[in-house]
Amino acid sequence: MHSVTCQICGKRPATTHLTELDGESVAGRQELHLCATCIQRLDLKLESGPPAIATILSMKAEDVGGAKPLTLTATTEDGADERCPHCGLSFGEFGSGKLFGCPHDYTAFSVQIDLLLGRYHGTTRHIGRGPRNAPAAGDDLSSRRTLLDNALRAAVAGEHYEDAARLRDELRRLDRPGA
Fold first, then answer.
1. Over the stretch 87-125, which tens digit does the pLDDT of each residue have?
2. Contact between 74 and 81 (Cβ < 8 Å)
3. Are the C-beta atoms of 124 and 118 separated by less than 8 Å?
4. Residue 82: which residues within 8 A CB-CB, separation 6 or more?
5. Strand 30-34 with 16-20, pairing
6. Angular region, 50: left φ>0, alpha ψ -120 to 50, beta rest
7. Which pTM does this prediction carry?
8. CA-to-CA distance for 7 and 157, rounded, in angstroms?
9. 3-state SS, residue 58
10. Where are the domains of the chain?
11. Phi-psi category of 155—alpha, beta or left, where left has phi over 0 and alpha has psi -120 to 50?
12. What does DSSP assign to residue 132?
């Protein structure tokens, strides 16, 4: 199973998972994943009942040596809420429990969605099982290119120049149109 990263520091694996329910609806459910170090640095007393997730997120993350707290806002340059051009939903409305209003919301809020996925799951790409008839992981062109690029960097760092030249040539073949 893939480990979840701490949402406060964004560095260490989470060991404590808090879930807060707002009424009966699933949309009102909030989760927070914390590592033991951040729990200690934030001086959270979980034995006597954890504080509200919003309270934890509002604490200064910089004080624990981590990333800024996760917020569900998207604003334009003039400070107004960014909205989907098709349905008018703001990202803040989505964050407060509403579902996306149309398929275009995924495009309109792609940056914020990637940030959320990265904070919650540690990656923005699927890791795990997929459909039986799907190609094996790494079969798509971008994954292949990434693997070759990483191998090329490792070969150069290890001064294996013959391997690096072969990998460079293979990358160039992939970059040619019709590859």
1. 988 877 876 667 888 898 888 888 878 777 776 676 777
2. yes
3. yes
4. 74, 75, 76, 90, 91, 108, 109
5. antiparallel
6. beta
7. 0.37
8. 33
9. helix
10. 1-68, 71-128, 141-175
11. alpha
12. T
